[in-house]
Amino acid sequence: MEYITPQETSLEERVQVSYTLLLDFIGNLLEINPQRRPTAREALKDLSLLFPYG
User: Fold this and answer.
1) Whole-structure pTM over 0.85, yes or no?
2) Is-contact 46 38, C-beta < 8 A?
């Protein structure tokens, strides 16, 4: 039997952007623990959404 083990990569490698605020925002949304993960309302108030990316 053969198992396929995914490579461990960082969020920075997967998303491939250099905006630290955006990476922090995405990382917070991907938090597994729902007690630590922001609600939708909290996420929409995040200051990183105000930054002009691009």
Assistant:
1) no
2) yes
